[in-house]
Amino acid sequence: MARSKEFPGDPRRSADVVPYTPATSASDGSLYYMIAFVSSMGTLVFKNKWIGWIAVYSSLLSVFSDRASASGSGGSSRLSTVVLAFTSLVMAYMPELIALFRLFNQGGSGAPGSASTTAQ
Question: Which residue spans traverse the membrane (predicted)?
Answer without folding.
Answer: 82-104
